[in-house]
Design a protein that fits this description.
The chain has one domain. It is built from 2 helices and 4 strands; from the N terminus they run ββββαα. The chain has a 4-stranded antiparallel β-sheet, with helices on one face. Strand 3 and strand 4 form a beta hairpin.
């Protein structure tokens, strides 16, 4: 893994964007008492269920857009 970028809501949510040397990039998501891997930003939003109207939901969506742009720039 070349680089790890994180979104953190202390005690409630941590999402780590993982760039793989081989295979697809992914997101490692941690919530209290569970953790899982998502392969795209839409899957992260479905799994975490943070609403658009919350400050965390808005911040998470903005961060995911940044990570999507980063992933697309790697491909070109």
């Amino acid at each position: 893994m070349a680089e790890a970028l994180r979104f953190i809501k202390p005690g409630a949510l941590t999402v780590e964007y993982r760039r793989a040397r081989e295979g697809p990039n992914s997101y490692l998501v941690w919530e209290p008492n569970k953790s899982y891997i998502c392969l795209d930003s839409a899957a992260v939003l479905r799994a975490t269920k943070w609403g658009k109207g919350t400050q965390t939901g808005t911040s998470l969506r903005a961060w995911l857009e940044t990570m999507d742009a980063l992933g697309k720039s790697e491909c070109s």
